Amino acid sequence: MKVKNFIVTTMATWFFAASSLAFAEQKINLVLPMSPGGGTAALSKFVERHLEADGYDVNLQLVGNVANAKRIFERTNVPTVVAWENGYLLEEDHIGNIGAPTSDDFFNIWFWAPFYVCASPDVEDVLSVSGNVGVNPHPSLPHWVVDSYVEKNPDINPVTYTNSGEIKSALVSGEVDVVISDRALAWENEGIAKCHYNTGTTTVSGLPPFANALDNDSASFSLIVYSFTVNMDDETRRDAQKAFKSALRSDDVVDFFEGRGADQTAMQLPEEEQLRFIESTLGN
Amino acid sequence: MSTEILIVLLAIPIGIIAGMMPGVSTTVILLLTFPLIYNLPFDLIFAFYISVAICTQFSSSVIAIYAGIPGDITVLPVLKERNNLLKEFSIKENLYRTAVASAIGTCIGFSLLVAFVYFLGPYSIFLLRSEVLFSIILIVLVVCLFWQKNKILINFLLVPIGILIGTIGFNNLLLKDFFTFGNPILYGGIPVLPAFIALYAFPNLIKLNKDKKSFIVEQPPMNSDKKNKIMSSSILGGSVGSFSGLVPILGSVSSSNIAYWISGSFKFSSLEKVAASEASNSAAFVVVLAPLLLFGIAIIPSEVILLEMLSSRGWTINFVTKETLLVLFFISSISVILGYYACTTLAKHMVTFIINTGQWLIWCFFLTLLINVYILSSYTSEVEIYFTVFFICVFLSIFFENKKIDPLPLIFPWAIAEQLIAVTYRMKDLHF
After folding, report:
1. Do B317 and A190 touch (CB under 8 A)?
2. Domain A2-113+224-280 has what CATH class?
3. Residue ranges of the domains in chain A?
4. Tell me: the pLDDT tens digits for B226-271?
5. In terms of DSSP bridges, do strands A194-196 and A26-32 run parallel, antiparallel, or are they unpaired?
């Protein structure tokens, strides 16, 4: 009898403890269509840590690709924040083209970055280099960037790589002569490459604006990682947005962006302005 | 500072335990210990990484030799030669020799790492080129096609099936899905790791209880002539691993198999072949750091995690100094000494413990495998597909066991299919 009482009491305690925990923390899924190891994945770790410190029970899911992410957020019934890229929306038949975010489901911009065009530091004029150009099939990399570059210099040959790490290897080993990537600022700091870039709307670090050099002043020159919500009511969304913006202001995230102040500004703008910024990159 | 050093030293028991657990790779350890090591000084993060890498390579052979369970794909040569090893020597002797080989391999790998960072860097850049990766993939496929454990006809059937399975899913390079038939659950592809665990671990688990009584037969210690041969095969293996480990993606995981294959042409004994493969494996997992320290380039998945962790805190190659190498030398030496001690002395107790256990240990191992499959799947939210693949492959392993078919020509092409597509596509861009 004593044993039975003990078991019943223990189970009841577990049940109430589990119930109180469930109500104490707001459960949130963070779904990213990326693999562990990428820049967005690294950023998501900071966000996860800060949201948990704010009392959220965060389930971070790095699901590898956009198709997998779509499958998961379409089937979940838990409040979920899904990271997405503006580039998915640029191509009509892309699996990630789920339409532009709206004011009802938009959450926040995670980060944005220009596409850098880089060559070895000893190259005088990147636009005159002939040979192989490493690109990755980034859906956010507008075709016109590569096309207009080829048009300027018909002697170049675009070569496709899976990610920015592979592109960096190709540049260092001499397999390609020029690369186009969104992750190249650190390479320039390491002395591996000399880069040109321009966002189309802002010149971030005073480097020569590549877009102008190509006689193309389109604004769609930026990679934007943003997020939207699924199964989340307005109040929860507003609270989570505040916590999220606070996480993006933290020292470790500011360091992560290597002092690119413009990134921080974009991420702290009111949601309506962020939405307009995304829309401006999508064209008509 | 003392807490930080303590965290780094924690890498040694973590690595040793992880090496004995199938499916728990250095990548998984880094992901699990992310909050613990993230704020360490850069040099100590490298020290943690190299210590885990060294210790997992030490201990993965322990469980492979005793129970026939692969901690990862690098212990395949041990599994291949395991029956011969157990006939010729006691388990204790086998563990001692493989630990010596691992220690020799680590020393050679570390020497080459220092040499690469200081002297040979500019001459080794060519190893990063796509042509090298493409050649390695072709060699792997040819070896699979002519794998002598199976009939060639069986291999010619298994290799295309492996490639086909590996192709299923959404391709991140071509931005298209293959053979998913519109089923979203297949977008993430068919994961190879649960298949690997099931096809190699499960048959060995079945045999574990039956075989273990025969393992306790003590053999006389080897004569000095044999010891010399182990030294030479270990040096050969360590040298092979020090270069093959530099090949991106496939280098470190296939180093043990390459050394095993090369040692076959030297007419080495089973123990010498295993010593060569273990030394090669240990050397490869140390020298793999060379491209990262030299160029800031990650060439294996665990390094990608490491690099992102470092670069997110502003690390660049400019932070690599003589102190970095001194710290790595210090922690590597401690890891080799403690890893060797744990895998020989601890293994002795472990062997005695396992021999005295009943059926429950097998169930514990099986449960560990299931938990590891769950941990692996939880990173991608593909629990259903991981377990489906695992259980299908458990039944497949029983079929293979009955028909005496070695699953290697199925597993390797499956694992490298995505790379094969990517590098073939890139070779077309570069040369045609």
Report:
1. yes
2. alpha beta
3. 2-113+224-280, 116-213
4. 454 688 899 999 999 988 888 776 677 788 888 998 888 887 888 8
5. unpaired
